[in-house]
Amino acid sequence: MTPATRALIAWEGEPERTLRQALGETNGLTDVALFIGPEGGYEAAEVEAAAAHGAIPITLGRRVLRTETAAVVGAALVLYELGEMGAA
Prior knowledge:
Blueprint: E1 6-10, H1 19-23, E2 32-35, H2 44-52, E3 56-58, H3 67-81
Parallel strand pairs: 1-2, 1-3
């Protein structure tokens, strides 16, 4: 398995940084690890530990999504931002 070139952690405590901002310029970016928390969300210490290892905390918006929904929404947003959802 190829290591991810960008790691993102979705957290309801992140006030501003969106997935789009965290991905930034996506030229050549092909591998993204997206961490979605358990029901009830991540603890701040867990997010801090992930950030200390290079993960970028992001928000998925104002709404708090169920874990199952957040995973699907997050994956779709990553694919969209990487240009994988357009015509071939």
